[in-house]
Amino acid sequence: MPKRSAKKQTSLLIPGNPTGSLSIAALEDIIALARTFGVREVQITSAKRLALCGFAEADREELATAVAEKFQGPDAMLQGYIVCCRGRRQCPHGCRQTEALSQGLTDLLASLSLPAKVKIGISGCPRNCSAGSTRDVGLFANMKGWVVVFGGNAGCRPRIADTIAEGLSRQAALQAVEKCLDFYSKNALPRERTARFVERLGITTIKEIIIAP
Ligand code: SF4
Predict the structure, then answer these.
(1) Distance CA 142, CA 96 (A)
(2) HSE, side-chain direction, 13 A CA sphere, residue 189
(3) Strand partners, 87
(4) From the CB of 128, is ligand 1 less than 6 Å away?
(5) Would you list the DSSP string of 81-120?
(6) Contact between 67 and 14 (Cβ < 8 Å)
(7) Which of 49, 85, 115, 147 is the most exposed place for a label (fewest CB within 10 A)?
(8) Pocket lining: 94 vs ligand 1, CB cutoff 6 Å
């Protein structure tokens, strides 16, 4: 098999942006950066992020600095990421707005030390466009409030997440996720994803501990 060149393999994520929405100005900034650094292509990732792909490895540091100057966001992807749909503000099906919850969870992720990557999906209605049922943490809205699910996974060993609580306010949903992730971070094995963690301990046990006052 022919060896791929180093330039083809390089990639760098644009940080932040859980909703996948970009202003025209931000797009123009990305194009300008791509032209300046000879970026071969821009990829849309499965987490709705943009990744600059195919630049000279020697330019990585300078490109990363230029990206950081233009795009603020969590140093993401190291601990996990959040995917968020457009919610009620922009989607006719939306029951609730998603932006504030996304920001609260971004802050929460940044404050935690987690044993493995945590992917979060937030959806503004039960259509669940952000696929929360197959993410470590999923939140979707219905007419009664937020539903929080935990322990989902896609990939090689898929698992549908279990419902932790429903009918929650935004604040209560944030607290429920914080309790889940706090318990997970203190009791999971190194690099154990939430799906395997829930299978090992059992969702009943986890729910009893998390829901306990
Ligand atoms: S989950 Fe619902 S609110 Fe969000 S984009 Fe899909 S249809 Fe719209």
Answers:
(1) 8
(2) 9
(3) none
(4) yes
(5) EEEE--HHHH-TT-SS--HHHHHHHHHHHHH---SS-EEE
(6) yes
(7) 115
(8) yes
Cα 129 to middle of ligand 1, angstroms: 6
Where are the domains positioned within the chain? 6-70, 80-211
Asked whether the whole model's pTM tops 0.90, one would answer no
Determine if ligand 1 sits within 6 Å of the CB of residue 159.
no
- Report, at the CATH architecture level, how domain 6-70 is classified: 2-Layer Sandwich (3.30)
Q: Residue of the nearest CA to atom 3 in ligand 1?
A: 94
User: Cβ(108) to ligand 1 under 6 A?
Assistant: no
- pLDDT tens, position by position, 58-70: 999 999 999 988 8
Distance from the CA of 16 to the center of ligand 1, in angstroms?
A: 20
Q: How many CB atoms lie within 10 A of CB 85?
A: 28
Domain 80-211 indexed as CATH 3.30.413.10: yes
Q: 176 C-alpha to center of ligand 1: Å?
A: 22
The pLDDT tens digits of the residues spanning 60-109 come to 999 999 998 888 765 545 578 899 998 999 999 999 999 999 999 988 98
Output the residue whose Cα is nearest ligand 1's atom 2.
125
Pairing status of strand 137-142 against strand 145-150: antiparallel
CB within 8 Å of 43: residues ≥ 6 apart:
11, 50, 51, 53
